[in-house]
Amino acid sequence: MIPVLSAEETRQADAYTIQNEPIASIDLMERASHAFANKFAELAGRGHRLYVFCGTGNNGGDGLAVSRLLIKQGYDVRVFVAGSPEKGSPDFKTNLERLNSITSPGFIDSESHFPRLDDQDIVIDALFGSGLSRPLEGIYADLVSHINGSRTKTYSIDIASGLFADQPPQGTAIIQPLHTISFQCPKASFFHPASKDYTGQWHVVDIGLDQKFIDSLGVTQFYSEPEDFTKLVPRRSKFDHKGDAGKVKIIAGSKGKIGAAVLCARATLRTGSGLVFVQTPVCGRDVLQGAVPEAVVIEDKNMEVITGIEPGDYDAIALGPGLDTREETRKAIRKFLEKTSAPIIIDADGLNILSIEKDLLKKAPAQSILTPHPGEFRRLVGDWSNDFEKITLLGKFAMDHQFNVVLKGAFSIVCSSTGDIYYNCSGNPGMATGGSGDVLTGIIASLLGQIKRPFDALRLGVYLHGLAGDLAADKIGTNGMIASDIIDFLPSAVKKMQF
Q1: Comparing C-alpha atoms, which of 496, 480, 492, 439 is closest to residue 462?
Q2: Is residue 27 helix, strand or coil?
Q3: CB of 106 within 8 A of CB of 54?
Q4: What's phi and psi for 58, nearest 5 deg?
Q5: DSSP label at 313?
Q6: In this predicted model, what pLDDT tens digit does every residue of 34-52 receive, in sequence order?
Q7: Tens of pLDDT along 157-185?
Q8: Residue 400 near residue 366 (C-beta atoms within 8 A)
Q9: Which strands form 49-54's sheet, in the order they lie side by side?
Q10: In what order do the strands lie in the sheet with 413-415?
């Protein structure tokens, strides 16, 4: 996993590395510029004219150094500096002297100095970095508008100019890059919907900041990587029997929404559970018996909704998909929560019932797993003004109730009961389809039944769900993907993770 640092933590890591490696700041800038130039060459190839726009701070110094390196590699590079060079940072001035030995940059102090950009050109954005303290204005805002309006492919150094690393976007004077090549760690803003137009496809390059110091910072946000999950995947031995692979109960379905129970049960089985029981109303019995013959159906006494739940002897229990929120069901869940002590998975209408009767949050067992989408989460905690406030609310909610929570979406946000945040790295837009959440609930229930550790089951389940979706997208594309496609690729996803 990769730590997600704040702008201040990044500044501290820079300073510590400079002092203790030791390395001069200009040499660390050179190292970072080499890393950017190498990744840029890999992504962009050759044959394009490059326009590099630099500010006069250290991000601009990076841009000057990158320009020099790319010129030496044979690229056609035009360099422009916005701002007063005499007010530049020391490392900016050093790199300006180095660049002047091979080419002279142009200087921009009015719109008349903006170069004409062709849609076949490439722009490298090095105007402002992660230390930005206020929205861009004046000539800088005009230059950003000029670049964004040019239809060129833009690559930002470390972070798009005008975008804050750990605050919501402000104003519209923000570069809209095709790619962002970020130093050492991704920025928190990369993971939030409000920043989607200002990140493009982002990449992280190692610039050799002191890792032990970063580990000592007590970082609470991380970006998960595929290798983080390999050791968590359940593996069967030759002498295992079905009881060893987890006994799971699913409480799901109501009249008109039995499909949610079907999807959840199929996902549970396809993730490896040995025994799956599904409690559903009478109206769902025949549907489930036909659609999921491998599951045992427990028939509720009511024709249309769930009215009574017994905890029973299960390794994992999931409730919520297609459940409905009628009074009879709410009463049944209240009685169930008063009787059960083991962690459970709560999704969909289970969450909606918690938001209707909020005192039930105190009755749900500690370490339970909740899987809300943003609308469900809003009903649980109230509204938020921006994505960063949303993350704060998520951490507080998880810690206050000792829950493990995933806030579903792009880069689904997994939060532990201690408030640590993990952004998920798998998944694609094709998974934004009805029933996808029911599949996720089944996956997590299966894993909880097998590995017995709620937070590990949650993290692994979210990743596995996304990986199965990615395998499906590779095969059939994203536009027509349905939830059943994710289930079909679950065995392949598990197999891929076991090697």
Answers
A1: 439
A2: helix
A3: no
A4: -70, -30
A5: S
A6: 999 999 999 999 989 999 9
A7: 999 999 999 999 999 999 999 999 999 99
A8: no
A9: 106-108, 76-82, 49-54, 122-126, 153-157, 179-183, 201-205
A10: 2-3, 221-223, 421-423, 413-415, 404-407, 369-370, 345-346, 316-319, 247-251, 275-280, 296-299
The neighbouring-strand residues paired with 180 are 156, 202
**Distant-in-sequence, close-in-space partners of 290: CB < 8 Å, separation ≥ 6:** none
Six-digit token string for 302: 């009511």
- Phi then psi for 370, rounded to 5 degrees? -115, 140
Stretch (H or E) spanning 368? none
The answer to whether the CB of 368 falls within 8 A of the CB of 392 is no
Average confidence score pLDDT of the chain: 97
SS (H, E, C) 250-310: EECCCCCCHHHHHHHHHHHHHCCCCEEEEEECHHHHHHHHHHCCCCEEEECCCCCCCCCCC
Indicate the pTM of the whole model: 0.95
Q: Evaluate whether 423 touches 220 at the Cβ level (below 8 Å).
A: no
Residue with tokens 């690559």: 155
Mean pLDDT calculated for residue range 399-412: 97
**Torsion of the alpha carbons at 170, 174, 180 and 181, rounded to the nearest 10:** -80
Stated as kind and residue range, the H or E segment containing 334 is helix 327-339
Angle between the 58-72 and 90-100 helix axes, to the nearest 10 degrees?
20
DSSP conformation class of 101? T
Q: What is the secondary structure of 189-234 as a DSSP string?
A: GGGSGGGGGGT-EEEEE-----HHHHHHT---EEE--GGGSGGGS-
- SS3 label, residue 56: coil
Q: Both tokens of residue 312? A: 């029973």
CA nearest to 309, candidates 296, 319, 295: 319
pLDDT of residue 364: 97
C-alpha span between 159 and 175 (Å, rounded): 9
Amino acid at 461: G
**Contact predicate 194/386, CB 8 Å:** yes
Q: How far is CA 380 from the centre of its chain?
A: 21
Taking a C-beta distance cutoff of 8 angstroms, is the pair 446, 234 a contact? no
Rounded to whole angstroms, the Cα distance separating 448 from 268 reads 10
Three-state DSSP class for 11? helix
Q: Can you read off the two tokens belonging to residue 31?
A: 């190292």
